[in-house]
Amino acid sequence: MRQAKSQLSRAFVSWKLWRTFHANGTAMCGDCVEKEYPNRGNTCLENGSFLLNFTGCAVCNKRDFMLITNKSLKEEDGEEIVTYDHLCKNCHHVIARHEYTFSIMDEFQEYTMLCLLCGKAEDTISILPDDPRQMTLLF
Ligand SMILES: [Zn+2]
Ligand SMILES: [Zn+2]
Ligand SMILES: [Zn+2]
After folding, report:
1. Distance of CA 102 to CAs 4, 46, 55, 115, 122, Å?
2. Hey, what's the signal peptide range on this chain (predicted)?
3. Where exactly are the structural domains of the chain?
4. Any idea which fold 30-137 has?
5. Mean pLDDT of the region 61-67
6. CB within 5 A of ion ligand 3: which residues?
């Protein structure tokens, strides 16, 4: 019993460490953006950059285009997760890490976005036909 408990708390501690690390990694740099994690309503970007929120690179002071690197797509429990980094084109300073998820929950498609630069957003779209005439045809 005691052993199981200590194992559990150790797992919890490393999870907390990972979370802290991940949060620090995601925070990257708030100096390059106008507003950190702005609320974007239901605008989920799977690609690209929200340039309006970019005030300029805090390292080289240039307001240039951004590069997108380290793009990856993975699937976890039926959820698709797209991640990529926003980089300063001039000095390759990492401005933000972008995360976009897509999943199907029952009859809904769910989209989420989390990015220091592009902000946070979520959207839910019904995959059922919402035409009432089509509904009556089913009965
Ligand atoms: Zn920066
Ligand atoms: Zn730069
Ligand atoms: Zn982004």
Report:
1. 36, 9, 29, 15, 10
2. none
3. 30-137
4. Immunoglobulin-like (2.60.40)
5. 92
6. 98, 115, 117-118
